[in-house]
Amino acid sequence: MQEKIQEEIEELKKDIQRLGTKNAEGKYVVKFGVLFNDEKTQQYYENVLDFQGQMLLKGAHDNVDIILK
After folding, report:
1. What is the Cα–Cα distance from 30 to 10, expressed in whole angstroms?
2. Ranges for the Costars domain (predicted)?
3. How far apart are the first and last CA of the chain?
4. Thinking of the domain 2-68, which architecture would CATH place it in?
């Protein structure tokens, strides 16, 4: 099971790099709405993504930056 989770995390990291851009710190950033609406990525993983707040809701948080740690 741990291996499956790690595979999913690696795939999500690739999607953030594919959909996002690098910020001033050199980290990949993508808006939640972009990530949420992408067919391949419909969820996020703790300890891999960073965003302000405790949870994200489609619509209300579409412009929140998702930062790859």
Report:
1. 16
2. 3-69
3. 23
4. Orthogonal Bundle (1.10)
